Amino acid sequence: MSFHHLDHYAQVESPITRRSPTVRLLVTVVLAVGAALLPLGAWPQIATLGAIVLGLAALARVRPADFLRRLAVPLAFVGVVSVGLLVLAPGQTVLALGPVAVTDAGLLRFGSAIGRAAVALGAAVLLVSTTRFTELLEALRSLRLPATVTAALGLAYRFLYLLTDEVERLRRAARSRNAAAGSAPRRWLLVGIAATALQRSFDRSERVHHAMLGRGFTGRLPSLRPAPSAGHPRLEVAAALLLVVVILASARL
Amino acid sequence: MIAADAAGDPHAVRLDRVEFAYPRGAAVLTGLSLRIRHGERVAILGANGAGKSTLLLHLNALLLPVRGTITVAGLPVDDSHAREIRRRVGLVFQDPDDQLFLPTLLEDVAFGPLNEGLPPLAAEAAARDQLRSLGLEPAADRAAHHLSGGEKRLASLATVLVSRPDILVLDEPTAGLDARARRRVVDLLRRRTETLVLATHDLDVARALCARAIVLADGRVTADAPIRRVLDDTALLEANGLL
């Protein structure tokens, strides 16, 4: 388990990485919000926004397999939490599974939720694939997000790597002793690993707090640079906004 | 190098009958007394659980004694002097991942100067100078998880050296390093002129860096002598779990 190269495509020269991180962030937000605002069953518009995201991914030279793999997990999560929509919306029964009936209205809601999530998550995947985390933090600060929030995000980012390394070490140690053959023992093993990783994370957080205090921390996280100016990303962002507004308007015609 | 502080005290560190126990834990320091003079280089030796790391945390006012008194750089170790003590004492933790907690190395090294009130530009310049002096400038914008073990160790040293402390307190500075990285760290520390307090299990490193050794067992001093005499005393080393 590793995401050490999540931002691999940030090092690839492309028309996307030539844009400032603030532009990339704002365009991502515009696409995600645009997708969320689409009405139910706006299939051509969902497809158009999806095609735009895929086109941007191609411009960024992100390999389709990488893009789809990164999109699959969060999209599957959305699918699982949205599955109730299939049966909860009243409508004409399309498929009966015992006492549970999938309705046409449920299918519409479920399909729309998945389509809109695919666009929004695709845009987000593209952003994190093509932007270093430090650039993202700079972009957030340029948009006047409070320094405490960006500092906390920075700490969380660093801890995420430590935590995944910790979990990986525990997993490897368990596997090296032939632990967890079969699915039930494997589930218990995962629970044990999670509990141990959590305990170690608490211990580490205490040590890190000591390290911070030792270097003069008094409760306020200082920032090395003042919030950078957002510059003039207006043209690209305005173009994206206009495009999304046109797509939204066409969906309501 | 300071020979004596403003009050004329030649000791950088003084502990008198210090006792400490963690909440709901056994006593870790049990009447510990010792003196370290300004400019001295002292190895703190002892088996696991002897109280070495707990002692080091007291020297930076991160833990306070339950009984007894500690004076560091002429200042009593208590809440009211903690900030000034931490400015004067650079504590490097055993695990560099505890010390490097920000997204880039540059931010980590600038963290101390910023907390001391340096303006951001000056803090960045100081951090870059420090990284350059350790050959880490090319890694300034990298995250700690992209560094090798040796680089991480040097970087964690940089995070305290940048504040120009009077006293360097190091917890196992060579643990987990390969021979080359270990030599780099030892060479760097050999050139330092600050008071050096070094807790280690690595007897070769202790011999290379320190003139004096203090051996701890069960939270108190069991030997305090020139390093050669301590390291040549096989019976003493065995009795204290060092061999």
Tally of strands of chain B: 10
Strand proportion of chain A, as a percent range, falls in: under 5%
User: So how many helices of chain A?
Assistant: 9
Q: Give me the number of helical elements of chain B.
A: 10
**Fraction in helix of chain A:** 55-70%
Give the biggest beta sheet of chain B: 6 strands, mixed
Protein chains sharing the most extensive interface: A-B, 29 and 39 residues
Walk across the major sheet of chain B and give the strand order: 6-7-8-3-9-10
Quantity of strands of chain A, as a count: 2
Could you report the average pLDDT of chain A, rounded to the nearest whole number?
Answer: 86
Q: Could you describe the 3D structure shown?
A:
The complex is a heterodimer of chains A (253) and B (243). With 253 residues, chain A is mainly alpha-helical. Chain A folds into two domains: 161 residues, no CATH class; 69 residues, no CATH class. Chain A is 69% helix and 4% strand. Chain A is built from nine helices and two strands, in the order ααααββααααα. Chain A has a two-stranded antiparallel sheet with strand order 1-2. Chain A is globular and about 60 Å long. The mean pLDDT of chain A is 86. With 243 residues, chain B is an alpha/beta fold. In chain B, 36% of the residues lie in helices and 26% in strands. A six-stranded mixed beta sheet of chain B has the order 6-7-8-3-9-10, with helices on both faces. In chain B, α4 packs parallel to α6 and α6 packs parallel to α7. The model of chain B has no long low-confidence stretch (mean pLDDT 93).
Secondary-structure blueprint:
The complex is a heterodimer of chains A (253) and B (243).
Chain A: H1 21-37, H2 43-59, H3 64-82, H4 85-88, E1 93-97, E2 100-103, H5 104-130, H6 133-142, H7 147-176, H8 183-214, H9 234-252
Chain B: E1 11-21, E2 27-37, E3 41-45, H1 52-59, E4 67-72, E5 75-76, H2 82-88, E6 89-92, H3 96-99, H4 105-115, H5 120-133, H6 149-161, E7 167-171, H7 179-191, E8 195-199, H8 203-209, E9 212-217, E10 220-226, H9 227-231, H10 234-239
